[in-house]
Every structure is written in structure tokens, then in C-alpha cells.
Amino acid sequence: MKFEDSLDELLASPSHVRVLRALFTHATSRLTGREVARRAGGSTAQVARVLTKLQDQGLARAETAGRSYLWGWNPDHIWAPALARLFEREGTLREELLVDLAELLEGLPANRALLYGSIPKRAERADSDVDLFIETDSPDASERVRERLAVGRELLWRKYGNPLSPLVLTTHEVRTGRGRGFLRSIERSALPVPTGAADGAHP
Which of 74, 90, 106 is the last residue of a domain? Predict the structure, then answer.
């Protein structure tokens, strides 16, 4: 391992990160190169090169199994605990976003809220919107929700770097056609966001 700027080589490319993630996710197993490539979403040749470099750095361990190598995560490496914490945190980001959205809606007259679009589908880009649907009882309630979200948009942007894109409709608007087809189109993949309706404030 290099002691000067060692992260430059450990995290040299997205392929390095994906291979490290695959090894960490299966830290109690030993994987063939093909298995690592499948889990990392790369070609066998490309992943083999990355594994060799990570072995040189000490984070990947290789064991011979006949004519093949079995690869594994080295938990004793000096960088292993820090990288493990990053990968663990990475796995909770969607849940943390749902918590932040719920806190943003706390106390508001929102009957239900759904996170929809690319984020719950796991198809987002770095600049994808946080698409949020909120249903309310009345136009006045919708206005209150929009006012709060206008303030919370900046908080979410600073934390995640993604713009908040809310769609606020009343129950009447949903039932009379404007939102009916839209709601059907998103419900299958959308994630529910807890709202104040759970406290009994709304039917």
C-alpha cells in the first residue's frame, strides 16, 4: 500500500469502488473473479485488473482454489473500517431521505405522501430530482404544504445535492381526473413517506 495519498489508488475509479463494494457486501464469503464481476457490474477482464491492484494495496485477498482464485475482503486492512462505514452509510441513504421528508412534512395537513420517480426505482442520476407527491384535503392545506416545502427545498439541496420537486394535489383533484392516472402510474414503485395523518389528524 502507498502511504502517500493512498486513497488515490484505492478509489481510483468507479470500477474500484464497485469491486470494493462487492467484496465488502460479501465479506464473509470467497468469490471467484466471475462472481465479483457479476456483482460489480463489470467485465471479467476489467474486474480482474482491479482485483490485482486492490490485492497490491492489501484490501483484496486471494486464495487459490485449483486453477482459480477466490477473492475476499480484508477486514484487517487499515482502510477497511473507514470504507466499511461508508458502504454501510451508503446502504441507508434512501431510508434517511424518507426520514428527512417525513420530518419536513411533520405537523402539516398532508393525508399521504409518496416518494416516486427514479430514486425509489434505483435509477437516479446524481442530479435527479427528489420527486414527492402529497395529497391534501383542501386548496388551503395544499398552500400550507407548498410554503413549507419551499423552505425545506434548500435544506435537502444542501444535504443531498438533489432538487426537491413536489407535486401537491387535493383529494378532489386526485379523484376527478387530474391526478388519477398519474397516481396509478407511480403507486407500484413509490415509497410511502409518513405524514401527520398517522396521528389521527386526517381521515
Answer: 90
Quote the domain boundaries for residue 139. 93-198
Residue-level pLDDT at 158: 96
Measure the CA–CA gap between 16 and 24, rounded to whole angstroms. Answer: 12
Dist CA 25 CA 188 (whole Å): 28
pLDDT, tens digit (0-9, with 9 covering 90-100), for 31-63: 999 999 999 999 999 999 999 999 999 999 999
d(CA 51, CA 196): 49
10 Å Cβ neighbour count for 195? 24
pLDDT at 197: 53
Question: For residue 203, is it within any domain?
Answer: no
Q: Do both 57 and 105 map to the same domain? A: no
Work out the angle between the directed axes of helices 14-25 and 44-57 (0-180°, nearest 10).
80
Angle at 36 between CA 85 and CA 61, to 5 degrees: 70
Number of domains in the chain: 2
Angstrom distance (rounded) from CA 109 to CA 136: 6
